[in-house]
Design brief:
Length: 590
Amino acid sequence: MISKIALRSTSASALYNYNYKNTIVNGARQLHVWNNRQNALLANDNKRNVITQVRNASDIVTSPFANVKIPHTNLVDYVWGKTEEFTELPSATCGVSGRSYTYGMMRMLINRCAQALIGHCGMKSGDVVGLLLPNIPEYMIVCHGAFEAGLVVTFVNPLYTPDEIKRQFENAGVKMIITIEMLLDVANTVGPQLPGYRTTICVGGEDDPSKNIHGLQSLLMGGYEAELPGINPMETCLLPYSSGTTGLPKGVMLSHYNLVSNLVQGDIPPIMEKVEPENQDKVLTVLPFFHIYGFNGIMNVAVMKGLHLITLPKFTPEDYIKALVEHRPTYLFVVPSLMLFLASHPAVTRDHLSSIKNVTSGAAPATEGLIAKFREKVGREDIHIRQGYGMTESSPVSIFMPLMTPRSKINTVGVLYPNTEAKIISLTTGEAQGTHKSGELLIRGPQVMGGYLNNEKATAETLDEDGWLHTGDVAYYDEDNYFYIVDRCKELIKVKGNQVSPTELENLILEIPGVADVAVVGIPDTLAGELPRAFIVVKPGAKLAEEDITQYVNPKVTHYKKLAGGVRFIETIPRNPNGKILRNELKLRS
């Protein structure tokens, strides 16, 4: 499928016979004039230390680490800034096909992609590109190529239905879709329905002028030249979609500054292990790059540190174990369900995990029992297993476990990142809470989003006028300022770390004739964490069975949004006086 673009140093030698320093043009970026709001954000960032000193210490928790300086640069220049130190080292390799790119090769192709997008495909600075891609090495080329061209990127789960993809791409204002041959029919269905749509790029495919399709390989080899625009780091460059604390998925406006900030915050010795390019570490990940965790927490971190990233386009036990055997990775990025697979699957042996030095688990809490079970499988005490806390809205990390976290801090998600503040407020009074008192977690820092795209109401509900991000998660902190996540006051359902919006499923179910009212909640599940379950009120005289509901909903959504928790018919949906669904009450009925 993708083998046509197996661009390696052993083939197409003329393409890669280049002088790296002469290839990267327009290295010095010219910044635009920042608007008042952006200047205010920077001013707040610079004054935060002074402000914190005059506040009551019990109100605001600050990081135990000194503030770090955030460079005012764009994401591409920052992430690839040290490429010359490891030009000939491998950057990314497909764990299935073996297709591989060196750092120098990848950086050159990113620049070629950027120039082709502007000079040949007709894209303009600020246009939105939609990525419909699995985890493949070329993800870096097209994603960072779009950023270098001054474009905005949004990405979707390639398993989404055409309706789900269209909904997001239409909301984001997508003008171009980049995909693979296997998904080209979906792109050809969705693209022409988008206002002002320009063209489609196919990774591994050929040019097809009759359908307005460009093959990525021909674009990269076309020698197109264009003057790349200056990039203002404060401008939005990424539009991942998140349900936030409630409601339908919304476009999260993340700037170059947000994303670079989060990378800089995590790149300090107490958090980041020292890496040595001459003994290049390998990172194995199947976690999707279309999720902010995979994108900025894994892919960009790996590139920034000169690591060798082994990608898998999808999870199968065979492919994952094969990658463990062939590549002997030193770093693993997992979610709890993947950690459970590694800890319990009989085909995964202790030898398969013998090279692992560091495991990072995210997207959902990993229990103490699960971590103990994984350690038992590994059979070593020197392995670092760490968790953190973040949201799409915070680029994503705001809390993380330092390397020297005491074993006594059971179930912690760590301490605040540098330049980050937090407070816990009462769920009833809104007053700030002290140590060991649970409440809603609020976060503030340079990694926090600018807001939701074209949704001032949702922005105001999540991001207050003082810059606090209301996470919707219930947490507390101890006397050492280690944080613990204990519950969620938001409605979001987490299925194997994937976000499922109850509102989205409820809107679908309400389309079914005979449904009078509906509420969807997450019910506990050992493997998935939660599963969506629908509680339905039927109209008088109507007759509906569970199959009527699932047969309508399940084909319209991706696999983890299906009503795997079942359907229950009830007399009435419990609501408060304002009409808000009392989901916790429904969970008790489960």
